[in-house]
Structures are given as C-alpha cells and as structure tokens.
Amino acid sequence: FHWQRQTPVKMLSLSNAFDSELRRHQRNEGHSSEVAAMKFYEAPANFVLPGIKHEDLLAGVFTGKGDSEHDPALKFLHGTTTLGFVFNGGIIIAVDSRASMGSYVGSQTVKKCIEITPYLLGTMAGGAADCQYWERHLGRLCRLYELRNKERISVAAASKLLHNIMYSYKGYGLSMGTMIAGWDLGVGPNLYYCDNDGTRVKGQKFSVGSGSPYAWGVLDDGYKPDLSLEEATELGRRAVYHATFRDTMSGGRISVYHVHENGWTKISMDDVEGLHWKYESEVRHGEAF
Questions:
Q1: All residues at 6 or more sequence positions from 224 whose CB lies less than 8 Å from its CB, including other chains
Q2: Which residues touch 112 (CB under 8 Å, ≥6 apart)?
Q3: For the residues of 30-88, what is the DSSP string, one character each?
Q4: What integer is the mean pLDDT of 62-89?
Q5: Which among 216, 162, 165 is positioned nearest to 193, based on CA atoms?
Q6: Is pLDDT of 136 > 50?
C-alpha cells in the first residue's frame, strides 16, 4: 500500500469514517488542499490503531483467566528483606535497599522504609510501585484524620485503613507485604503486618520478603524484650545483613529506624559490603555476636 501525496483522493479512501471526518475538518479549517489532509492524518489523536478489544488487552496478565484463574501470565519475581520488632525501648525497623525482578537487579538504593507521618513508618515488600503509592496515600489519609479530629491517628486505625484498601483490591494483582509501626499515646509501641491477601495481624516480631527465613534465624536467636537501644539496633542490622548474604534478591544498603514516644529516628544506613568485612573481622578475632 503506497501513500501518494500528489493524489489525496487515494488517502481519503482509507475509510468512510475518515473521509467524512476529513471533510468536516477541512470545512472548519477553511482548507481543501493536500496540506489539510496531511495535518489531519499526522495529528496524534487520528493515528490508525489496530483492532484490539480493550477489555481483553490485559486479561489474564495479573490474575489469570478461565481455567488458569490463579496462574497469571506475568509472574513477577520480587525479593527483599524487611523486619521489625518491639522491645522495651520502642520498635526497631530494619530494611535492605535492593530492587530486583528475578535475576535482574534494578536498583541498589530503594528506600524501603516509607516515612508515612512523623510518627508512623511503613515497610515495603512485594511490588515497589504498589507499596510506595498506597503507603503515601495512607499518609494523606492520616493527615486528613488529624485535621478533622485534632489528634493523630492510632497505629491500629492507620493499619486498618491500609488493610481496607488492600482487601478491596484483593484478586486484582496487588503485590504488597507491609509493616506499619508507630507509638500510640498512652498505649505504647504497636506493630502491624498487612498484605495484599487482606491479612492484618498485630505482633511483636515480623520479617517479610524472600530473605526473611534467614533474618528470622538471627532474630529469634538474639531477640529479648529488654534489649538496650544499641543491642536492638545491632540485632536488626545483623539479621538483615545475614539475609542479604544468603538471598541474592536482597542487598544494597541496610537502613535501621527506631520508633519511640516522640516519633521515629533513622539510626543508620550501612552498605552490606562494609558490614561483611566488619563482621568477618570480628569472627577472625573471636568477637562475633
């Protein structure tokens, strides 16, 4: 099929609909020349699109279709290591920073601890876009609650808001496993886990992500409620480090946060390579944790 600019009549024969629309366009513009036809066809809104049924365009991609309802066409292989635990001095949150999709490492500097409000923290495991979007949306909802009620929202209520959103999108392909940590006035530290299946659980210790089995081993061995802040911080850091050492989908930098009565404080951010040589040196000198 050849486009011949010298004979615009051949272009107009593309379809009756385009023929009619072009004539209307020429009347409105006051042109009947080849230039008017070219302007019409080159407009982005008038590009000829293939005949695709839009309702079937992404059918089965995220949630499966028909007999394969629970077997989506796109299988996102994501990995991370996040953990949080409650102790007498508040809550410790520790996360890595690697974003990956299977064997592909997309970034080593992802901020997986999302600062929802000055006194609420959220972690992200699963799909980075899902976690970032909905936890930032949660921050907006928490701020609106403050403005309407003249008091800050409780950790339980904030986690319930996020849970309600994820439950309403259950089965739509969301990928989220997040912890919500904060300090309630008159109550103390609270830690909740929410995920895309509609789960919402309150607990003292959580570890989420592909590296969590390795982190659990260190966390269970060293956890005590009466840890000092320094001991608790080192426990969280070391647990995530060991997960990054064994889990290829975790790595980058380890960030540690402390949630306390006055909000939260970022304690440290360490590169896992530096931690590796530090801990390896401690083992050589008999100073291992």
A1: 87
A2: 80, 82, 95, 96, 97, 123, 124, 125, 255
A3: T--SHHHHHHHHHSGGGPPPP---GGGTTTTTSS--GGGTTS-S--------EEEEEET
A4: 73
A5: 162
A6: yes
* Residue that is written with structure tokens 């292989």 in the block: 77
- CA trace torsion 90, 185, 96, 220 (10° rounding): 40
Residue 118 has pLDDT above 90, yes or no: yes
Name the token pair of 253.
């930098």
Yes or no: say if 251 and 271 are a contact pair by the CB < 8 Å rule: no
pLDDT score recorded for residue 116: 94
Tokens of 21: 């629309």
Number of H helices, E strands in the chain: 8, 12
Nearest to 221 by CA among 231, 211, 209, 230: 231
pLDDT tens readout for residues 208-244: 999 999 999 999 999 999 999 999 999 999 999 999 9
Helix (H, G, I), strand (E, B), or coil: what is residue 159? helix
At residue 171, the pLDDT reads 83
Q: What is the set of active-site residues? A: 80
CB-count burial class (<10 Å; 0-12, 13-18, 19+) for 12:
middle
Please, are residues 253 and 111 in contact by the beta-carbon 8 Å criterion? no
The span from the CA of 269 to the CA of 237, in Å, is 9
Identify each DSSP E strand in the chain by its residue range: 82-87, 90-95, 99-101, 104-107, 113-117, 120-123, 177-184, 188-195, 200-202, 205-208, 253-260, 263-271
Considering only CA atoms, which of 237, 244, 192 is closest in space to residue 79? 244
Residue type, 37: A
d(CA 200, CA 215) in angstroms, rounded, equals 21
Q: Is the pTM of this model over 0.85?
A: no
